[in-house]
Specification:
single chain; 202 residues; mainly beta; 2 helices
Length: 202
Amino acid sequence: DTVTVDNTITVTQGKLEGLSLSSVDLEFADDDNNIYSSFNGSGYSKITVSCWATFESTGNWRGLIFNTDTGGWNNGFGLGMNGSQELGFWIEDYLTPASISSADTIALGDDGGQWHHIVGTYDGTNQKLYIDGVLKDTEADTWSTKANSATKLRMGCGGGNSNAADYFHDGKFRDVRIYDYGLSDDQVASLSSGSYPVTPTH
């Protein structure tokens, strides 16, 4: 594996995983918040996206984990906050996410910087959003349009136009995991508690 660090972190192959006491501290609207990896999700029909994060502030249009070709957020998948400040997970189209309310999202930024485990899953039928191992929302959807195989996996920000970073997270961020299947409720709870034994796909 090759890792290059120069304000931008590039993972040539493998995974970027923070240890339990290490993390990156991201600032909103800072172009140096640019963590990405090569990722080909074109063959995925199901997925789980997971990370740990703190929220120093919340707001509209902020990304946690994204793999989408354009700033329109209308293909691939994303885990982040939409234009109504609702934290959610979506495949195919950001307008139909599994999400929590803006009030519940804002509360994440008012809790003194606590760590939260954020997970989005798609099992081929339903999108689900979990926070700290607890299922928060379920929305049915069909995933027919994936991001281009050359499109980067963005972490701590959203995908932007021309494959550029945008929509930055404000807070700490660690332990990104992607599985090529949708974890069950029990498996997400196990992952959140640190006892899920399966190595992530990415």
